[in-house]
TrEMBL record:
Domain of life (superkingdom): Eukaryota
GO molecular function, one term: medium-chain fatty acid-CoA ligase activity
Pfam families: AMP-binding
Record keywords, A-Z: ATP-binding, Fatty acid metabolism, Ligase, Lipid metabolism, Nucleotide-binding
Protein's GO biological process: acyl-CoA metabolic process; fatty acid biosynthetic process
Name of the protein: medium-chain acyl-CoA ligase
Domain AMP-dependent synthetase/ligase span(s) in chain numbering: 52-174
EC number per UniProt: 6.2.1.2
Gene Ontology cellular component annotations, sorted alphabetically: mitochondrial matrix
SUPFAM superfamilies xrefs: Acetyl-CoA synthetase-like
Protein's organism: Cardinalis cardinalis (Northern cardinal)
Length: 188
């Protein structure tokens, strides 16, 4: 049994609990490796393409001005693959490398999150309320090779760059360009 929510079938909480109980009791095998991007997102994309899953948004973002971004599973999957390519090619990141993202919850935040899962990159989120001292601490403690932020927070990052030894690339999410920074939207 399932309930309908905006035309799609969603698992009831009892079904989800039942699934995990069956894993705990050894009735279902836990995969050795699990990757949300390929094991869930890509599978839902395929189901959507085959018409076995209704075409509901995988991602729907609305800001305080009423602007919307709405992506299907296929669009989210494709954009996350492109983002993973930006991280591996333009930023030179590899599986196990770390990235610090200090952004408000804009669509790019979620793209980076899924792309990092897809590529095996360790994602460290940070609130946009961090001070320069907080940013420096996170960069040093995480040994991040890349930082992603916006135009507003870039000056705080720049003020602490001399104290970072592992940082190799800086991505900016925004419309303009900034010396020494890669522009995420242009690379995407």
């Amino acid at each position: 049994p399932s309930r309908t929510f905006h035309g799609s079938n969603r698992l009831l909480t009892s079904q989800i609990v039942s699934h995990y109980e069956s894993i705990n009791q050894g009735e279902k095998e836990v995969p050795e490796y699990f990757n949300f991007a390929s094991d869930v997102l890509d599978k839902w994309t395929q189901l959507e393409k085959e018409g076995r899953k209704p075409a509901n948004p995988a991602f729907w973002w609305v800001n305080d001005k009423g602007e919307e971004v709405k992506w299907s599973f296929e669009e989210l999957g494709s954009l996350s693959k492109k983002t993973a390519n930006v991280l591996s090619e333009a930023c030179g990141l590899q599986r196990g490398d770390r990235i610090v993202a200090i952004l408000p919850r804009v669509p790019e935040w979620w793209l980076l999150n899924v792309a990092c899962m897809r590529a095996g990159i360790i994602f460290f989120p940070g609130t946009s309320q961090l001070t320069a001292k907080d940013i420096l601490y996170r960069l040093q403690a995480s040994k991040a090779k890349c930082i992603v932020t916006n135009d507003t927070l870039a000056p705080a990052v720049e003020s602490v760059l001399s104290g970072t030894q592992f940082l190799k690339s800086k991505l900016i999410v925004g419309q303009g360009s900034r010396d020494g920074w890669l522009n995420f939207k242009e690379l995407l």
